[in-house]
Amino acid sequence: MSAIHIVHDYPHSATKVWRAVTDPALIPLWTATGAGARPEGFATTVGTEFQFIAKPKPGWSGIVDCVVLEVDEPRLLRYSWTDHGGGDTTEVAYRIEPHAAGTRFTYDHTGFTGTGGFFMAQILGHVRRKMLRVGLPAVLNDLDEAGRLHPDSSLKHKL
Questions:
Q1: What is the reported pTM?
Q2: Cβ–Cβ contacts within 10 Å for residue 110, how many?
Q3: What positions does the domain Activator of Hsp90 ATPase homologue 1/2-like C-terminal occupy (predicted)?
């Protein structure tokens, strides 16, 4: 079985990181460095069914069906991940914990099987690393401590 495991430390509070990765208005701002997915119907409530919708690509509709499986705000979000066109269901988990002068964010995407799963994990892993290395820090830097975009944020025009 293949998996994606990414750990980043950010010089921001756990509350701010939680807000950036769970606020439906903020998620597309940091995923824009990847496929630009926006969540439709997302809430941090166990059992919530939602979709990530991105720009379609050859061989992919751009839609992923998800269900929130576990929430422990502001420490854990876990949800299922299934391509809208079918296939295996995998799981994504965000783990957030205080670390040094900021927060450690751990991203795990597990459950990829077979050769196709291996290649999918490689492709998604590359995209996720960029989103967490470039996209998320840009959003975090433009948020105040309450998790709101600064009035002069360059990201406001993307909302």
A1: 0.91
A2: 15
A3: 13-114
